[in-house]
Amino acid sequence: MNTRVVVTGLGVCAPNGVGLYNFYDSLQSGASGITFHQELADLGFGCQIAGKPEISESLKESYFTPLQLKGLNSSGVVYGVMAGTDAWMDAGLGKANKDKPDWDSGIIFGTGILGIDKLRESIYLIDDNNTRRLGSNSVMQTMASGISAYLGGILGCGNQVTTNSSACATGTEGVIMGLERIRSGKAKKMLVGSCNDSGPYIWGGFDAMRILPSNYNDDPEEASRPMSATAAGFVPGSGAGALVLESLGSALDRGAKIYAEVLGGAVNSGGQRGAGSMTAPNSEAVQRCILDALSDAGIERSEVDVINGHLTATSKDAEEIKNWSEALKRSGKDFPFINSTKGMVGHCLAAAGSVECVASLLQYRAGVVFGNRNCQDIHPDILKLVDVSQIPRKTIAHRPKIIAKASFGFGDVNACIIFKEYKKR
Amino acid sequence: MVDNDERLARLKEIVKTYLPEDVPIEAVEEESNFVTELNINSAHLVDIILDLEDTFGIRLENEDMDKMQTVRDALNIIDLKLLDKK
């Protein structure tokens, strides 16, 4: 019998809410975090809007020491440390004492690329024959594992401390990796999550691919339109989400609050074969991933009552819905409730999976399914498969039982996780 | 030209940021060794060097860093560099 794993802490640094309470309020009311960025306009971007968490200097000071703040120019580290520390504290856990690490606690905190602004600063100095002026903090702010290293040092974790990377599936993949580590008995608690830097050097490549909306620069809050007939591309975002996973035994022993059980999950790849490519998912792989997750969780297709999709607000949304419908063999009014967090925060890239897992889990706390923003005009191909009642446009009262959350990423990689409501016996 | 006390005060202000939480600024004396006595992470010596450069408008070389073990070493190096500048 596998060790059961539950979620005991959450933390988030999202474009529409920094901290759990602000994030919940925004999700509940459908508030958007997408804003116009003059910097992007000045640089001649087609898409001049984005989702970026607002962090004041004084807020940073409560998470970082003056030494850590000195020369800190990595937004991903800021978002990740804030979300990760918050999740740890939300779980009622403390920092390990000065001389002894917490051997049973580990960290898997993913990212796509870390500290791109620091990297740019460093490259300018190096090209100016001034490498000596980089100082000591260029490496840790730009190594991918910098985020898990910062958190590992702040919290004093002595188990596995690492960083995963699988493009936009990163955050969801990390939850599954943490689940597997606790299940296998190698750790009792795992802080899992992911972060993504903000700014033009992150978003520019996507703008160049012409996959971002360019017609909403005057109307940023309406731009991210998952499942809508007028979806015009994903709005780039940034931020971080974090979850504390813990063995059920450990959580019960210390009387921790439990958001939900992590019942199972699966990751796979479409191998960039068939219709799959570097940038497009192979539908067969997506459906296999969903079914593998159900199988790992030991539940039937019929038991899923809420889905938080990947649903980025591109023409691929209808295809994703078709994959859910075919995999679950469910349609019309029988289709689960489905929502996309991206209508409010945009696509937070490597942070998307973790931010959206936090959003999914907050639904258990409040007994609601969050509404979908910007999809009054649901795509006709989606309505052929799903009854309109299953795509709430406003937050509705519904106590979720089984939530399926999936994320898909460049490289044709997929991750799907199954959460279950936790009932005290 | 800043006098010796002023130089020490400025140096202390720089060093303050790099001290571990349990080492108070009052512990910084002229004889203090940065790494073995003040417990400053040796990786941060390069940052202290850069801060000294910015504060005093001087440039320190690798051999200066090697010689800079104590607070007094640092003050001496600053003196020499400031004299060179004149």
The H-level CATH homologous superfamily of the largest domain in chain A, spelled out, is: Thiolase/Chalcone synthase
Which bin fits the share of residues in helices of chain B? 40-55%
| Unreliable sequence segments of chain A | none
Number of distinct beta strands of chain A: 15
Spans where pLDDT lies below 50 across 5 or more residues of chain B: none
What would CATH call the class of chain B? Mainly Alpha
Please describe what this structure looks like.
The complex is a heterodimer of chains A (425) and B (86). Chain A is built from 16 helices and 15 strands. By secondary structure, chain A is an alpha/beta fold. In chain A, strands 1, 2, 5, 6, 7, 8, 9, 10, 11, 14 and 15 form an 11-stranded mixed β-sheet that branches. In chain A, a hairpin with a 2-residue loop joins strand 1 and strand 2. Chain A is globular. The model of chain A has no long low-confidence stretch (mean pLDDT 97). Chain B has a single domain (4-85), classed as Non-ribosomal Peptide Synthetase Peptidyl Carrier Protein, Chain A. Chain B has helices at residues 4-16, 45-56, 62-67, 71-85. In chain B, helix 1 packs across helix 2. The chains are: A alpha/beta (425), B mainly alpha (86). The A-B interface holds A 65-67, 70-71, 98, 132-133, 135-137 and B 17-18, 21-22, 43-44, 46-47, 50.
List the keywords.
heterodimer; A: 425 residues; alpha/beta; Peroxisomal Thiolase, Chain A, domain 1; 11-stranded mixed sheet; two-stranded antiparallel sheet; 34% helix; globular; B: 86 residues; mainly alpha; Non-ribosomal Peptide Synthetase Peptidyl Carrier Protein, Chain A; 4 helices
